[in-house]
């Protein structure tokens, strides 16, 4: 009887031994759980992301407009920051606070951006454009009053950025 049990359970025992040895000699069974990320680590990570954003930009005035509108639509201050010129980034930080110390969510849940229209986009010179945008807003009760902003767009090195918003 024990010989029959041994033959029946031999493959099972072999698999168990292999699994146990595998856990002892590999990372399949970690010895300790991962430690939670500290506030200081999160702040450092935010700073790295901000530094990365400082090295990118839009390839055209139209693209910087699209990034700006997406920032408005998603209430994403980090996208506003990414689309901003060096000087305008400093103004945004002065207004919103440093990203590792504050929350860059812009706007509120209502109204939200339903659609937008470029009223005009004109070239002022080889390195500067101006664009007037009309935002069409919505609330749970229906459409809200449209608003307009004027973006001053400049070229810095190889990229286009928003210099100012009125």
Range of strand content: 25-35%
CATH class of the domain at 57-165: Alpha Beta
Shape: globular
Written as H for each helix and E for each strand, in order along the chain, the element string is: HHHHHEEEEE
Estimate the mean pLDDT confidence: 86
Radius of gyration, in angstroms, nearest whole number = 28 Å
Low-confidence stretches: none
Q: Output the structural class.
A: alpha+beta
> How many strands, what sense, and barrel or not for the largest sheet?
5 strands, antiparallel
Write the layout of secondary structure elements.
Layout: H1 2-25, H2 39-53, H3 61-74, H4 77-83, H5 86-96, E1 112-125, E2 128-139, E3 142-143, E4 147-156, E5 159-165
Antiparallel strand pairs: 1-2, 2-3, 2-4, 4-5
Helix pairs in contact: 3-4
Characterization of the model:
This protein has 166 residues and is α+β, with helices and mostly antiparallel strands. The protein has a domain at 57-165: Nuclear Transport Factor 2, Chain: A (Roll). It contains 5 helices and 5 strands. It has helices at 2-25, 39-53, 61-74, 77-83, 86-96, and strands spanning 112-125, 128-139, 142-143, 147-156, 159-165. Strands 1, 2, 3, 4 and 5 form a 5-stranded antiparallel beta sheet that branches. It is globular, with a radius of gyration of 28 Å. The model has no long low-confidence stretch (mean pLDDT 86).
Defining key terms:
about 170 residues; 5 helices; single chain; alpha+beta; Nuclear Transport Factor 2, Chain: A
Summarize the structure.
43% of the residues lie in helices and 27% in strands.
């Amino acid at each position: 009887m024990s010989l029959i049990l041994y033959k029946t359970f031999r493959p099972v025992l072999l698999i168990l031994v292999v699994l146990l040895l595998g856990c002892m000699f590999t990372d399949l069974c970690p010895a300790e759980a991962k430690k939670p990320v500290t506030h200081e680590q999160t702040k450092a990570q935010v700073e790295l992301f901000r530094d990365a954003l400082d090295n990118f930009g839009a390839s055209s005035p139209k693209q910087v407009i699209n990034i700006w509108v997406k920032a408005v639509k998603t209430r994403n201050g980090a996208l506003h920051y990414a689309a901003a010129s060096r000087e305008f980034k400093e103004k945004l930080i002065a207004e919103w606070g440093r990203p590792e110390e504050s929350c860059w969510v812009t706007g509120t849940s209502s109204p939200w951006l339903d659609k937008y229209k470029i009223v005009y986009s004109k070239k002022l010179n080889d390195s500067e454009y101006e664009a007037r945008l009309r935002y069409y807003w919505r609330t749970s009760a229906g459409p809200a009053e449209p608003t307009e902003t004027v973006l001053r767009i400049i070229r810095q090195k190889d990229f286009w950025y928003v210099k100012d918003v009125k």
